[in-house]
């Protein structure tokens, strides 16, 4: 392992690797990425691979438009097929408030050039065969959203960054970060130390622990989020279906499995990664409510990952007041995978001072102290 | 190649067989025996290829016949991916094969297997051009996936029930049944979950010998002891699906024939046995190549012989006994590939002069739609010096203990090259989880005798965990000696 | 023809294992994700033991290198209708507190 680096990225998930990849593409390769487990160990290897442009703020919509274009290119860029399939995203609203929310979002999305349409439950049945229309007020459908296979996105960025000269160290746990005054001097791991002045915290659910090594307190909280996958079936479901009433979402993978999850308001913040019977039951009920014929489909496997949540549902990006050269790139909730390409690219440009992006001031850690908070209301799937 | 035929059944055979019934296979009528596994009826009816594999469209056919592998998956009554070895035959069943164009029997997509003779790397497939990849996405998507979505109208959801019990035993094999007997004798209530319709595990194998008796005799004796114990509830056809340990109580999820159960035991004994992995040689997945226990069940249990002569390969005592059981039934053996010395072979094999091949391993299986011969090479060599014609192969593979359910609970599982992944236990069967014990092949037992002993010890230790009794402690100490 | 199948659910071959190792996927969790073995309908019952032996042998007989991947429910594919009923099987989430 290298014993010094210009920049150390803690967290070999898709966010950290996207940053490393884009830094390397800009010619900056004196970078070490530290991953505590195997590639795909954290949330990057545990998510459902949803990629959507249906958001409620203009900024997120524009970011996701960029990410979609980047995902379309990623397979040929890295040589790993991520199987990004644009089968659309269908949101279901069952109450007036959700319906109004969808209406407002669709207008905003259309203004940003995203072709989302409001459709009736009857029309939605043509998009999702077997959909039960009862109780659904209105749906929002954007055919250019999609799903991808998360693993090769992670492997691809890691390999591409490595080929350009970045070091990616797996099974390497950070045990301490040493600083002299405001300046970072060294990252200590269980496999040796790396002298550096700059550290990026891209550790997802472990970000709080990483920041604490420098005495920085983050407001993030990790939540277990569970997901399940069915037996592989021939293609019959094109879009990701998402029910706003209970946070259910599911789609069909390129391998033919139905893959999805459901949010659980009773889930306490924890680092629990065991699966639960509660989720299995809630998810099965939710799926059958949306598409009753799924009752005969078999559940094959369930697992859990983390949502790295912030108080306002927006990520934490940029510098901190306490220490110099300590850059934050976390708090993506359940959206790290879809935001990673564009955020990694912008962060690389910002770190190398190739461009200034307002993102890294607006979403810095200090916003919570300053009280400048704009909540993203559309944080599902 | 001989046609499939049915053998005479002995009166002590525990496998069910009912009246002759008619069902539909690929739109044609076929006959089988009600209650026997669908896979067995099809093999008896001469079906060789049950479907096609997901990527290379290689022919698939039953390999394990114990509900574990994916060789026997079929579409049954509008439901995809049904394990036909675990599905009892009923009159009027509609059975279809999956994958392949124009059909699974003759499948043009099989050319994929030849075009990509070495391997097809799906990770780099179509990555040279983004446009090309997007164009091919639809085709690739159609090729992926397995059975077509279900068309059967779903019924109401299964009733669900929570059940609090002192002890649960998972697996009604040798170890599990002995553990249950000990628990029952100690006066405890215990629920035994068994995935199969037939209790006994290895005791159902003709190749199983326990203290001189046949497995079938030992099974009858054990089950009669068990049925005399009022606290023991044996639930057949009720696979344990998961053990959840994320809450304060341990929950065992199981799917019974009519209801879904969440059992909440104070103590859990995992006695899940072991799987039959594929033996490793070229074209090891060719139809007609089975695991030894699958062949035992098919031929000796269900009395169906889909091909002859039979080639047997392996060194385990059970494998040799299987060869002997076939000879006893008048079945021709193509050979016995084993490194066990002549004097260690069962007497029947020596008198029948079964050709024994020593110092060799199977290099590859040959045949188009069903195995026709195997090529053998001396140890350490890659060129064959012996070819044996055969119509059926049973080949042993290194052990694969069924450790998963204990692993769900958080029990420590270790890997041993000779034994596979096994649940780590102490001499009494305690795992690293305070409420969970393990016994039998999942805990590393190598023989039927050992599995029985482990089952008894775990049963006693489990009973002691529920209630301390000096008598039980003495008995456990005696069993450990 | 001419393939040695390791996982018959996903058509993973011995060559796939060797390639994955070559590409740097040298632990069981990564080998599983990269090759797809143990992710099909049998969920690894027929292939994980072989993959573990393959890995341990290439790592100089290191048995610790072949610890099993995280085992995930369910043990066998089971219809959604078995779990979708209105009755509640799971213990309440509140009971998780204090168990840490």
3D architecture notes:
The complex is a heterotrimer of chains A (381), B (481) and C (100). Chain A contains ten helices and 19 strands. Chain A is α/β, with parallel strands linked by helices and 381 residues long. Chain A has two domains: 7-46 and 151-220 and 312-370, 3-Layer(bba) Sandwich (FAD/NAD(P)-binding domain); 86-144 and 221-309, D-Amino Acid Oxidase, Chain A, domain 2. Chain B has 481 residues and is of the alpha/beta class. Chain B contains eleven helices and 30 strands. In chain B, strands 9, 10, 13, 14, 15, 16 and 30 form a seven-stranded mixed β-sheet that branches. In chain B, strands 3-2-8-6-7 form a five-stranded mixed β-sheet, covered by helices on one side. In chain B, strands 18-26-20-21-22 form a five-stranded parallel β-sheet. Chain C has a domain at 5-70: Arc Repressor Mutant, subunit A (Orthogonal Bundle), CATH 1.10.10.1100. Chain C has three helices and three strands, in the order ββαααβ. Chain C has helices at 14-22, 28-35, 48-58, and strands at residues 5-7, 12-13, 78-79. The N and C termini of chain C lie far apart (52 Å). Chains in contact: A-B, A-C, B-C. Chains B and C meet through β9, β14, β15, β16 and β27 of B and α1 and α3 of C.
Ordered list of secondary-structure elements with their pairings:
The complex is a heterotrimer of chains A (about 375), B (about 475) and C (about 100).
Chain A: E1 7-10, H1 14-25, E2 31-34, E3 50-51, H2 58-78, E4 89-93, H3 96-111, E5 117-119, H4 121-127, E6 138-142, E7 146-147, H5 150-164, E8 167-169, E9 174-180, E10 183-189, E11 192-195, E12 199-201, H6 207-212, E13 221-230, E14 240-243, E15 248-252, E16 258-261, H7 277-290, E17 298-309, E18 316-318, E19 326-330, H8 336-351, H9 359-362, H10 367-370
Parallel strand pairs in A: 1-2, 1-12, 2-8, 4-14, 12-19
Antiparallel strand pairs in A: 3-7, 4-6, 5-6, 9-10, 10-11, 13-16, 13-17, 14-15, 15-16, 18-19
Helix pairs in contact in A: 1-5, 1-8, 2-5, 2-8
Chain B: E1 5-6, E2 20-25, E3 28-33, H1 38-44, E4 51-52, E5 59-60, E6 73-76, E7 79-83, E8 94-96, H2 111-115, H3 130-143, E9 160-170, H4 174-185, E10 190-193, E11 209-210, E12 213-214, H5 215-227, E13 232-235, E14 240-244, E15 251-255, E16 260-270, E17 274-275, E18 289-290, H6 292-301, E19 304-305, E20 310-313, H7 317-328, E21 333-337, H8 347-351, E22 356-357, E23 360-366, E24 373-378, E25 386-389, E26 392-395, E27 400-401, H9 404-409, E28 413-416, E29 420-423, E30 436-438, H10 448-466, H11 470-480
Helix pairs in contact in B: 4-5, 4-10, 6-7, 10-11
Chain C: E1 5-7, E2 12-13, H1 14-22, H2 28-35, H3 48-58, E3 78-79
Antiparallel strand pairs in C: 1-2
């Amino acid at each position: 392992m290298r014993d010094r680096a210009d920049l150390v990225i803690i967290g070999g998930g898709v966010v950290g690797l996207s940053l490393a990849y884009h830094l390397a593409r800009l010619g900056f390769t004196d970078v070490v990425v530290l991953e505590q487990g195997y590639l795909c160990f954290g949330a990057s290897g545990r998510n459902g691979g949803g990629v959507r442009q249906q958001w409620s703020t203009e900024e997120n919509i524009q970011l996701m438009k960029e990410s979609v274009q980047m995902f379309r290119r990623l397979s040929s860029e890295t040589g790993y097929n991520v199987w990004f399939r644009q089968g659309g995203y269908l949101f279901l609203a069952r109450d007036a408030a959700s319906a109004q929310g969808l209406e407002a979002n669709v207008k905003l999305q259309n203004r940003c050039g995203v072709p989302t349409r409001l459709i009736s439950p009857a029309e939605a049945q043509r998009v999702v065969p077997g959909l039960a229309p009862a109780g659904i007020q209105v749906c929002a459908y954007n055919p250019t959203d999609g799903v991808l296979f998360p693993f090769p996105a992670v492997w691809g960025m890691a390999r591409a960054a490595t080929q350009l000269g970045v070091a990616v160290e797996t099974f390497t746990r950070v045990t301490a970060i040493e600083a002299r005054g405001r300046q970072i001097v060294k990252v200590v791991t269980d496999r040796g130390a790396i002298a550096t002045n700059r550290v990026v915290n891209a550790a997802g659910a472990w970000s709080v622990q990483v920041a604490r090594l420098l005495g920085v307190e983050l407001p993030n909280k990790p939540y277990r989020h569970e997901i399940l996958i069915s037996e592989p079936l021939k293609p019959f479901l094109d879009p990701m279906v998402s029910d706003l009433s209970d946070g259910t979402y599911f789609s069909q993978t390129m391998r033919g499995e139905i893959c999805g999850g459901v949010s659980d308001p009773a889930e306490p913040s924890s680092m629990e990664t065991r699966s639960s019977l509660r989720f299995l039951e809630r998810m099965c009920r939710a799926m059958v409510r949306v598409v009753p014929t799924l009752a005969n489909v078999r559940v094959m496997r369930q697992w859990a990952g983390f949502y790295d949540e912030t108080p306002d549902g927006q990520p934490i990006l940029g510098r901190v007041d306490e220490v110099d050269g300590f850059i934050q790139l976390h708090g993506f909730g359940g959206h790290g995978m879809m935001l990673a390409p564009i955020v990694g690219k912008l962060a690389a440009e910002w770190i190398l001072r190739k461009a200034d992006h307002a993102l890294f001031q607006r979403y810095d850690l200090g916003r919570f102290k300053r009280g400048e908070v704009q909540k993203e209301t559309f944080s599902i799937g | 190649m001989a046609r499939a035929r049915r053998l005479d059944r002995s009166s002590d055979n525990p496998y069910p067989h009912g009246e002759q019934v008619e069902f539909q296979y690929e739109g044609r009528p076929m006959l089988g025996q009600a209650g026997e596994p669908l896979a067995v009826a099809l093999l008896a009816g001469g079906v060789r290829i049950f479907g096609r594999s997901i990527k290379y469209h290689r022919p698939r056919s039953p390999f394990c016949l114990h509900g574990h592998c994916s060789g026997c998956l079929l579409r049954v009554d509008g439901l995809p991916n049904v394990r036909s070895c675990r599905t009892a035959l009923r009159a009027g069943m509609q059975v279809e094969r999956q994958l392949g164009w124009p059909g699974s029997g003759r499948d043009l997509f099989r050319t994929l297997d030849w075009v990509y003779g070495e391997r097809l790397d799906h990770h780099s497939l179509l990555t040279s051009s983004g446009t090309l990849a997007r164009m091919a996405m639809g085709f690739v998507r159609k090729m992926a996936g397995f059975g077509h979505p279900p068309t059967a109208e779903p019924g109401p959801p299964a009733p669900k029930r929570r059940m609090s019990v002192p002890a649960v035993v998972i697996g009604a094999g040798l170890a599990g049944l002995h553990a249950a007997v000990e628990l029952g004798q100690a006066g405890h209530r215990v629920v035994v979950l068994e995935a199969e319709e037939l209790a006994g595990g290895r005791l159902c194998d003709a190749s199983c010998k326990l203290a001189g008796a046949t497995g079938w005799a030992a099974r009858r004796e054990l089950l009669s002891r068990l049925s005399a114990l009022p606290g023991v509830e044996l639930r057949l056809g009720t696979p344990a699906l998961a053990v959840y340990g994320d809450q304060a109580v341990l929950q065992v999820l199981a799917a019974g024939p009519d209801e879904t159960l969440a059992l909440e035991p104070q103590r859990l004994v995992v006695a899940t046995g072991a799987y039959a992995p594929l033996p490793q040689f070229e074209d090891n997945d060719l139809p007609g190549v089975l695991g030894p226990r699958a062949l035992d069940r098919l031929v000796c249990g269900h009395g169906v012989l889909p091909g002859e002569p039979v080639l047997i390969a392996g060194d385990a005592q059970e494998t040799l006994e299987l060869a002997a059981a076939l000879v006893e039934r008048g079945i021709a053996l193509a050979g016995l590939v084993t490194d066990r010395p002549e004097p260690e072979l069962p007497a029947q094999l020596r008198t029948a002069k079964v050709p024994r091949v020593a110092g060799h391993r199977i290099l590859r299986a040959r045949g188009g739609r069903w195995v026709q011969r195997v090529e053998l090479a001396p140890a350490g060599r890659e060129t064959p010096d012996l070819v044996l014609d055969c119509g059926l192969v049973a080949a042993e593979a290194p052990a694969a203990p069924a450790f998963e359910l204990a692993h769900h609970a958080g029990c420590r599982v270790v890997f041993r090259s000779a034994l596979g992944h096994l649940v780590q236990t102490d001499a009494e069967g305690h795992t690293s989880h305070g409420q969970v014990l393990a016994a039998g092949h999942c805990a590393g037992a190598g023989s039927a005798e050992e599995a029985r002993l482990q089952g008894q010890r775990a049963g006693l230790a489990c009973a002691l965990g529920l209630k301390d009794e000096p008598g039980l402690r003495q008995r456990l100490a005696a069993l450990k000696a | 023809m001419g393939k040695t199948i390791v996982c018959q659910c996903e058509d993973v071959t011995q060559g796939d294992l060797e390639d994955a190792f070559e590409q740097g996927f040298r632990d069981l969790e990564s080998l599983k994700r990269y090759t797809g073995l143990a992710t099909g309908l049998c969920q690894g019952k027929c292939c994980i033991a072989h993959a573990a032996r393959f890995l341990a042998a290439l790592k100089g007989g290191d048995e610790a290198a072949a610890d099993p991947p995280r085992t995930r429910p369910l043990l066998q594919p089971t219809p959604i209708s078995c779990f979708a009923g209105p009755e509640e099987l799971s213990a309440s989430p509140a009971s998780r507190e204090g168990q840490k």
